[in-house]
Backbone:
């Protein structure tokens, strides 16, 4: 698709040429000749592909005002099909209708004396633009025959064209993509565009500070909604604003929200897939390289800032699991590398974000929650541009957060964007955390309650790729104690004292360094299941190091499981024995 502004300005120039032709031929009594001239201009400039019509054209030579009513630009499908057969058809086909065009003060005298068309203002009301895109492969290899600038194209008619202000009010755009098996249409409604200081003359045609010959272009759209292809979500956007002078795009109120509540969502999905809620107050893309964006379709920007945000991920494990598929080459930085759209962002900043993961555990009947409060992050060198990666192949991330709104979490990532195995490293720390803050996560999901404990600091340093993580965890903590929650055969849940005593006595170290001042490091050598996601891989590899730090190895874990089960059964038998004696005694007393 050609850049949006190219065809906006093209449509505008077509309308201006209509006005020029009207002024050139003077007066309403010349309408038959005027119509012929207008049609000739459009046919000649479009290889006979487009025709124009309008209900009326009024202009006043004294006031310098002109009005065009019910203007239409229509494609000739027969000509289009012939152009396709001759391998000359454009990728985009346009169908345009405009309710009214008002031209205010076009300075008639200058047209005659200086061949200059200077217009104070043009207002285009209610334009309805339909664009059909069907990419023709030969357009990528055939060079354009007409390399003339816009000034060179109009210079036979006027020496200069200037418009102080242009307003497109209430624009509706329908863009249809016919390159797939099933065509898709995207609609934009209630768009408003303001163009300031449009100038087409011998000097401005090479002015790099101008945006398609304009000093500034402002684009604004409100209240946009689109449904996702799986019919499970809506994407909502309260507003989008683009300012060419500031080289800035601001998205406000961007949300990805489920169309159904949690219960109905899983009835619709039928499997235990994640349910997402994403909300961003603002997303600001600054210092955009406009020539690269418009001429090469590359997004190069100095800075992207995500304002106050919220991310919630929910999973109901009572539904059947999705069929597991291998996720080789699916890490986030690998997916960025494969994007067809070239991107290069110097700095991406995330501000004041709440990230939550919730999971319903059918066994406990409860929902566990892990949160990363007040998350702030800085990503640098976010790019998939091959040339940029040759000089620097690494994307980095520096992340700060409050884990479970308690401990201070800091992580540094370094992603090797050119490594075929998706190599990356991460290191960081978790400090000053009360261990009981983990209970909203551990009680529902692991059926373990943290009775006491304090984490002084947890340090980690890991080197990984999509197959394995190797590294170390250093975990410093004090007075750690847990209570094991067991579900009885009748479904009731209780805290088993004997099992808890065994866990605290034989399974975990209550402190690190321990009572003998011996420190227990946590080595990591974790082989990733290829069906595991990137974040699952991070969590499981770190958890391996944490378990080793608290004294849990595979032998001790198995021993505790067997001992706990035996002890629980033994305690149950003792209870049953004494309960039987008590019942018999009670029966005798009642007799």
Residues:
């Amino acid at each position: 698709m050609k850049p949006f502004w190219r065809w906006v300005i093209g449509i505008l120039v077509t309308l201006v040429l209509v006005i020029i032709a009207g002024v050139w031929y003077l007066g309403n009594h010349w309408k038959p000749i005027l119509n012929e001239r207008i049609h000739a201009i459009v046919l000649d400039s479009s290889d006979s592909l487009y025709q124009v019509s309008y209900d009326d054209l009024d202009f006043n030579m004294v006031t310098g005002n002109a009005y065009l009513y019910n203007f239409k630009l229509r494609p000739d499908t027969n000509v289009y099909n012939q152009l396709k057969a001759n391998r000359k058809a454009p990728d985009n086909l346009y169908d345009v209708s405009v309710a009214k065009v008002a031209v205010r003060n076009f300075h008639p005298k200058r047209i005659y004396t200086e061949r200059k068309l200077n217009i104070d203002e043009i207002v285009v009301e209610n334009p309805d633009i339909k664009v059909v895109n069907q990419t023709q492969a030969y357009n990528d290899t055939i060079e354009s025959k007409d390399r003339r600038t816009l000034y060179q194209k109009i210079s036979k008619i006027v020496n200069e064209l200037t418009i102080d202000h242009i307003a497109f009010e209430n624009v509706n755009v329908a863009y249809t993509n016919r390159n797939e098996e099933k065509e898709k249409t995207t609609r934009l409604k209630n768009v408003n565009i303001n163009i300031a200081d449009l100038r087409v003359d011998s000097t401005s045609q090479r002015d790099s500070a101008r945006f398609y010959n304009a000093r500034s272009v402002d684009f604004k759209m409100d209240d946009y909604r689109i449904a996702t292809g799986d019919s499970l979500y809506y994407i909502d956007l309260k507003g989008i604003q683009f300012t060419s002078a500031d080289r800035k795009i601001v998205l406000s109120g961007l949300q990805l929200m489920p169309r159904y509540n949690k219960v109905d969502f899983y009835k619709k999905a039928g499997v235990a897939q994640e349910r997402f809620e994403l909300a961003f107050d603002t997303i600001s893309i600054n210092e955009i390289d406009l020539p690269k964006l418009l001429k090469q379709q590359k997004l190069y920007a100095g800075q992207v800032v995500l304002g106050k945000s919220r991310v919630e991920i929910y999973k109901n494990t009572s539904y059947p699991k999705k069929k597991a598929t291998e996720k080789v080459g699916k890490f986030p930085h690998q997916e960025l590398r494969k994007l067809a759209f070239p991107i290069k962002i110097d700095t991406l900043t995330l501000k004041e974000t709440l990230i939550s993961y919730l999971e319903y555990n059918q066994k406990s009947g409860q929902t566990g929650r892990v949160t990363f409060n007040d998350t702030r992050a800085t990503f640098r060198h976010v790019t998939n541009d091959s040339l940029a990666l040759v000089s620097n192949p690494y994307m980095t991330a520096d992340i700060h957060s409050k884990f479970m709104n308690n401990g201070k979490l800091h992580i540094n990532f370094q992603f090797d964007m050119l490594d075929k195995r998706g190599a990356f490293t991460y290191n960081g720390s978790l400090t000053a955390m009360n261990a009981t803050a983990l209970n909203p996560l551990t009680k529902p999901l692991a059926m373990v309650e943290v009775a006491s404990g304090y984490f002084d600091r947890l340090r980690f340093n890991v080197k990984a790729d999509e197959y394995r993580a190797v590294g170390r965890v250093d975990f410093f903590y004090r007075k750690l104690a847990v209570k094991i929650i067991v579900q009885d055969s009748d479904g009731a849940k209780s805290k088993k004292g004997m099992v808890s005593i065994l866990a605290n006595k034989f399974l975990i170290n209550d402190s690190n360094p321990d009572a003998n001042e011996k420190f227990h490091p946590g080595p990591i050598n974790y082989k990733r299941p290829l069906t595991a996601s990137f974040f699952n891989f991070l969590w499981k590899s770190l958890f391996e190091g944490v378990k080793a730090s608290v004294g849990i190895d595979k032998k001790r874990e198995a021993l505790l499981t067997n001992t706990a089960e035996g002890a629980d059964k033994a305690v149950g038998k003792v209870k049953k024995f004494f309960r039987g004696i008590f019942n018999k005694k009670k029966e005798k007393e009642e007799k």
Notes: The mean pLDDT is 83. DSSP finds 13 helices and 23 strands in the chain. The first strand starts at residue 50 and ends at 53. Residues 554-590 form the longest helix (37 residues).
